[in-house]
Design a protein that fits this description.
Blueprint: H1 2-10, H2 13-28, H3 36-61, E1 65-71, E2 74-75, E3 79-88, E4 92-100, E5 107-110, E6 114-116, E7 120-129, E8 134-138, E9 140-146, E10 153-157, E11 162-167, E12 173-175, H4 194-197, E13 202-207, H5 219-225, E14 229-233, E15 241-245, H6 252-274, E16 278-283, E17 286-287, H7 296-305, E18 331-335, E19 346-351, E20 362-366, H8 367-376, E21 380-381
Parallel strand pairs: 2-11, 12-21, 15-16, 15-18, 18-19, 19-20
Antiparallel strand pairs: 1-3, 3-7, 4-6, 4-9, 5-7, 8-11, 9-10, 13-14, 16-17
Length: 382
């Protein structure tokens, strides 16, 4: 494993080619009478040996110090950015920033080299391409200094390991008529009426949405920008929709749909936060506070990114949702199976194929339709 790490970290593309030629010449020399391969093998060996000596000399006189490493999150399928401040006691013609020993689904892309004067600090960046949602460790972030021949490179790592968050690609919910449909939707309808859901403390102004009360119009903003704006009031803590994401995966088919359920939960959660009616958020039976981030939506995405991916070997058996404290607001649940629980008012079930339900409180959503909507970047109306 260490040889693989050295192969990836200490060799450039040209160095990989030189070492591969050395190994190929050794195997080709095993053929009887093919003495020319040994000639190439000897020449390449002496060349690589000289490069190793050059690498040690380069690393001895080009030591740098790396500080203030920051890893910005990204949405799955996009690139995250890693940045760090590098201090060089000597003049450096080329400096890169790289991330190594990461999950195989992550791929580091180094940006163009930056020159650095003696006793100067420069800010370096690199990109990490993500393929799936999750919370990933970045064990090694290092400043890279290529040796003089450009075959090998010296890596000076930062202290500690870092976390890279890949957010789920949320389904964009344009309309949500299912929330207030039927007899089970009567408990959600008052929350969408601003005159009943607002608190007493004024927090800001937003653009007018259909259904907003006319008495909440902000006349000064209307006169200044020429379009209607609505006053926003702080909602009392705990008041609003209790949103539950059930991550139980009883079988292999349901494990495939778990990522679709998380993407749907990200879209529905953003829709609730946009209207200020998300009161509490649960992952299974555990309540997760939405704080510690710049915005509530970002905090929600961080929680969803840290949910462990579905495992083929292990599974979580379905069970009835039973929180420690009885919720006071209406409950909306997203899961992979139907939970006949009197505490749940509405639930969205993500399945592999379209199903129907006689209950107005259950909506079956096909996972393939969610994937197709993400690919076409279309809005989904539930």
């Amino acid at each position: 494993m260490r040889f693989y790490y050295y192969w990836q970290e200490c060799c450039t593309q040209a160095g990989h080619a030189a070492l591969a030629l050395l190994l190929f010449s050794m195997f080709a020399g095993a053929a009887p009478g093919f003495w020319a391969a040994w000639v190439f093998c000897g020449i390449d060996f002496l060349f690589v040996l000289a490069l190793i000596v050059s690498l040690f000399c380069t690393s001895k006189f080009s030591k740098v110090e790396i500080r203030n490493v920051s890893v910005s999150p990204a949405v799955e399928g996009e690139s995250a950015k890693i940045s760090a401040t590098v201090y060089a006691p000597r003049k450096m013609g080329e400096l890169y920033l790289g991330a190594f020993r990461m999950d195989p689904s992550l791929k580091c892309e180094m940006l163009p080299a930056v020159a650095c004067a003696a006793n100067e600090a420069v800010r370096l960046e690199c990109l990490v391409q993500t393929k799936r949602r999750g919370s990933f460790k970045v064990p090694k972030v290092a400043a890279v200094v290529p040796e003089i021949a450009g075959m090998f490179r010296a890596c000076f790592a930062a202290q500690g390991s870092f976390e890279l968050l890949s957010y789920p690609k949320a389904v964009r919910v344009s309309a949500f008529p299912f929330l207030t449909a039927g007899a089970s939707g009567c408990v959600f309808a008052p929350l969408l009426m601003p005159s009943l859901a607002r608190g007493l403390d004024f927090v800001g102004v937003r653009e007018y949405r259909e259904g907003d009360s006319l008495r909440d119009l902000h006349h000064k903003a209307f006169a200044r920008y020429g379009r209607p704006f609505t006053k926003e009031f702080e909602v009392e803590r705990g008041a609003g929709v209790v949103f539950v994401l059930d991550t139980a995966t009883p079988d292999y088919a349901s494990r495939i749909q778990l990522e679709n359920a998380i993407r749907l939960a990200a879209g529905v959660g953003a829709w609730l936060l946009e209207r200020g009616i998300l009161g509490r958020f649960f992952v299974g039976d555990s309540e997760v506070p939405l704080n510690g981030a710049d915005s509530l939506q970002e905090s929600l995405l961080q929680v969803l990114a840290r949910i462990p991916s579905a495992d083929i070997v292990h599974h979580v058996s379905p069970k009835t949702w039973s929180p420690a404290a009885r919720p006071m607001g209406p409950v909306l649940r997203v899961g992979l199976y139907v939970d006949d629980n009197p505490l749940i008012h509405k639930q969205i079930v993500v399945v592999s194929k379209k199903e129907k339900s006689a209950k107005d409180s259950v909506l079956f959503v096909e996972g393939a339709a969610i994937e197709e909507s993400l690919g076409k970047k279309a809005e989904v109306s539930l």
